[in-house]
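A quick aside before the break. I want you to see a complete sequence-to-structure record at least once, exactly as it would be stored in a machine-readable document. Don't worry about memorizing anything.
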Amino acid sequence: MDHRLSGQYAIAGVAESDLGVVGPGRTELSLQVQAALRAIADAGLTVKDVDGIFVQPGPFERMPGLLLAEYLGIQARVNDTTMVGGCSNLQHIEHAIAAIEAGLCEVALIAYGSTQRSAGTRQIGGVSEDPRSPRGQFEIPYGLLSPIGSYALATTRYRYLYGLEDTDLGWLAVATREWANLNPVAYRHDDPLTMSEYLASPWISWPLRRDDICLVTDGGGAIVLTRIERARDCAKKPVLVLGIASRSNAHYWVPGLDDILTTGARVTGPEAMSMAGVSHQDIDLLEIYDAFTTMPLLAVENLGFCERGQGRYFFHNGRTGPRGEMPMNTSGGGLSYCHPGMFGVFLVVEAVRQLRGECDSRQVKGVQVALCHAFGGVLSAESTVLLGKE
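That is the input. The structure line, written in tokens, reads:
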């Protein structure tokens, strides 16, 4: 994929499923289906138009793409279940574009769903590990919370090298909650957060507090992607995929990292921006995976929005909030909107709605280009997507 593909593909539809706590009667599949049908309807298409399925596995189903295809009655020409953690759905966009370019499908459905809150599959210590694996042998038995402990280690390293005041990450948490209070479907809607309340929240894995850590919710999301020519005939204005890049970082767990603060964004950011033909100054909106406040901190540095060691100042004084100059995570993010285990698809859903001008009281004025960036695993994989208006 090269720069010549920029602007030839578009997102025609996006949607969420029900969010928050959906109850024990719902399944991963039911949330995938609900989000998928809403996204297809958002595009003004029908299920019969879809011939490519890209779905991220959850804890219960080994072959979710086949199950979703069966439920929807789709004889999919492409069925991709790539799983690299929270950036999987962004990589699915890349894979869908490659499949359409190769003539393997015409309309791609990208879907995700999780009932982790209602099903109780996500505990503070994380998901279960094979005791024979490296993490199962050398991390879990010694009490490292997963993935919380790994991001706490990254935060500790940053604090040691560059300093980190308690309020530095607090600015991000407070700003994100402000966005959530403008989003009627956010889990933390009508639930303000002050800096003093943030500082009073308990430590979970030092130096991360409770309000540095994402929600545990149910939810699903979906994206419909096709060529720009077809997207122009759909119900909504198409949102262009301007550039995209992904990397797996040659490690699965934190001890495999040579430098815990250098992430794949250092590669994916420049590649995606080069493909899109844009610079940092052209970007009006950031949607960055925030399972932990540490993640946007590392992302803005590695993506090149500031120098290394300066990210701690990036969020000060509400800069990324509703009245700030660099709006970020305008849905409320994983910290305050929803976080059903993996958050990548929701970054794109919000960016598309902002570019369409559909966000009501949280709408950012004049958005032309949005950057979405997601992490997978424990800094193990990353994807960057640039979206824009036609």
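Two observations worth writing down. The first helix runs from residue 28 to 42. The mean pLDDT is 94. We'll return to this after the break.
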